[in-house]
């Protein structure tokens, strides 16, 4: 009798999941800022507690070889927002913070994931860090989003009193400029282009409050929330009571960083709880990534990986990457297939049934790989650059050049994920073939739309 009941229950769950998957799922895309590969419990972290993200991973697919297309900030975001290597549309560097600069931002001819999903009937909202251009034409409201709450530049203070101190200091030191808010931690928060006074409370909490409010306003769905938190990016600031939980961590920066990650995890838990309480969790596709690797000098930890934010070694471009959609993806699966953030836009397109309408994509729909039903890999090769650095992965081989005139090194990632053993002299023909392929990719890229990309 018990077996019969269990079978009936399983069939009912399968039926409900299939029915839910036929509807357009809500999409919640969460980005952490400068979070290290080794900074979550589900990725082996022992000194920071992350129960909410561990729960997300247990209920979905955790990628062990998930990548971003750049080892830092704006270029990484320009890649996943368009599904195309950001260099294809001239986005080689972080943009400046000039609200009158009509070049430093995401190319207006590129379709964003918000453009795509809004065409499919989604209500769209961007919250927190934008960093894709400060001029009006680059504003989220003009790039496919119905609502925006956050800041346009690369960072923000976490407490209003700290923000005010930074703003006054910047204004005093730059009283001769007509743009007193250029320093990106002192650009004001805003809603839909209207600047706001600083609000009481911790910024990560405020951003989550707005996200939950949007979910309530858009509960008839489908909705798309793009939530690129600035935590745990500097400035290192966290609630005192959360820092106190980590008094056993001796390094002050790591202690505050841990508290920032703890608070971020707690707020992601609030989002997941709301979806569950309102019956929307099963058919909500939730993705969590970091925009690049962690920065050890600011408290981040990249586990066994070499390098950090700003470098094309694995520690700069391999990131925590979790995908959960209970109605359509298995729970508790660990995926070792190399997948890159460029794949998110076409995956969202496939999940929502909306055809991409922009230029040819570099990303692909990776739902079959997430389910474990596809053979092979979605990409023959992956490419990176940052200033004078070059990086390429082909199969399990990784070629890296650290400086403009430096030699290329070759690593076999399956046996050497820490990129410690240079095999370039043992496999010179393979390295030369990879360098030639990299040169072919380089020749397809557009010139930088601002500044020299080597610097």
Automatic annotation (TrEMBL):
Keyword Hydrolase listed: yes
GO molecular function term, any single one: arylsulfatase activity
Residues covered by the Sulfatase N-terminal domain: 25-353
Database matches in InterPro entries: Alkaline_phosphatase_core_sf, Sulfatase, Sulfatase_N
Alphabetical list of SUPFAM superfamilies matching this protein: Alkaline phosphatase-like
Membrane spanning residue stretches: none
Keyword Disulfide bond: no
Pfam families reported for this sequence: Sulfatase
Family as reported in the entry's similarity comment: Belongs to the sulfatase family.
Keywords from the named record: Hydrolase, Signal
Name assigned to this protein: Arylsulfatase
EC class of the enzyme, as a word: hydrolase
EC numbers: 3.1.6.1
Signal peptide (from-to): 1-20
Organism listed in the record: Kiritimatiella glycovorans
């Amino acid at each position: 009798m018990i077996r019969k009941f269990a079978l009936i229950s399983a069939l009912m769950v399968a039926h409900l999941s299939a029915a839910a998957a036929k509807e357009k799922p809500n999409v919640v895309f969460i980005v952490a800022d400068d979070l290290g590969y080794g900074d979550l419990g589900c990725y082996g972290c022992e000194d920071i507690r992350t129960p909410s993200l561990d729960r997300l991973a247990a209920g979905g697919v955790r990628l062990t070889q998930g990548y971003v297309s750049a080892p830092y900030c704006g270029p990484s975001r320009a890649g996943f927002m368009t599904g195309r290597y950001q260099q294809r549309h001239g986005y080689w560097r972080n943009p400046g913070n000039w609200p009158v600069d009509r070049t430093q931002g995401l190319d207006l001819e590129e379709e964003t994931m918000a453009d795509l999903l809004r065409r499919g009937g989604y209500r769209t909202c961007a919250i927190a860090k934008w960093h894709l251009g400060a001029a009006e034409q680059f504003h989220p409201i003009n790039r496919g989003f119905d609502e925006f709450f956050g800041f346009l530049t690369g960072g923000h203070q976490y407490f209003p009193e700290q923000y005010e101190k930074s703003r006054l200091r910047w204004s005093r030191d730059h009283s001769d400029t007509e743009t007193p808010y250029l320093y990106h931690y002192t650009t004001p928060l805003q809603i839909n282009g209207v600047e706001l006074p600083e609000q009481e409370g911790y910024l990560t909490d405020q951003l989550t409050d707005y996200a939950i409010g949007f979910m309530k306003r858009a509960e008839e769905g489908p909705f798309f929330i793009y939530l690129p938190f600035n935590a745990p990016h500097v400035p290192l600031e966290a609630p005192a009571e959360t820092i106190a939980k980590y008094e056993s961590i001796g390094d002050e920066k790591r202690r505050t960083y841990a508290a920032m990650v703890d608070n971020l995890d707690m707020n992601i838990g609030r989002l997941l709880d709301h979806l569950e309480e309102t019956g929307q969790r099963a058919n909500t596709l939730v993705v969590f990534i970091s925009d690049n690797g962690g920065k050890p000098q600011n408290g981040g930890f990249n586990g066994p990986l070499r390098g950090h934010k700003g470098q094309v070694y694995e520690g700069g471009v391999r990131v925590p990457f979790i995908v959960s959609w209970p109605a359509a993806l298995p729970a508790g699966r660990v995926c070792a297939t190399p997948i890159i953030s460029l794949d998110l836009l076409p995956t969202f397109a496939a999940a929502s049934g909306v055809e991409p309408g922009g230029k040819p994509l570099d990303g692909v729909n990776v739902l079959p790989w997430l389910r474990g039903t596809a053979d092979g890999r979605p990409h023959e090769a992956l490419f990176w650059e940052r200033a004078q650095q070059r990086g390429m992965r082909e199969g399990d081989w990784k070629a890296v050049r650290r400086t403009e005139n430096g030699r290329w090194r070759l690593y076999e990632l399956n046996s050497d994920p820490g990129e410690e053993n240079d095999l370039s002299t043992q496999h010179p023909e393979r390295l030369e073939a990879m360098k030639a392929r990299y040169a072919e990719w380089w020749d397809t890229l557009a010139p930088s739309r601002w500044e020299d990309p080597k610097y």
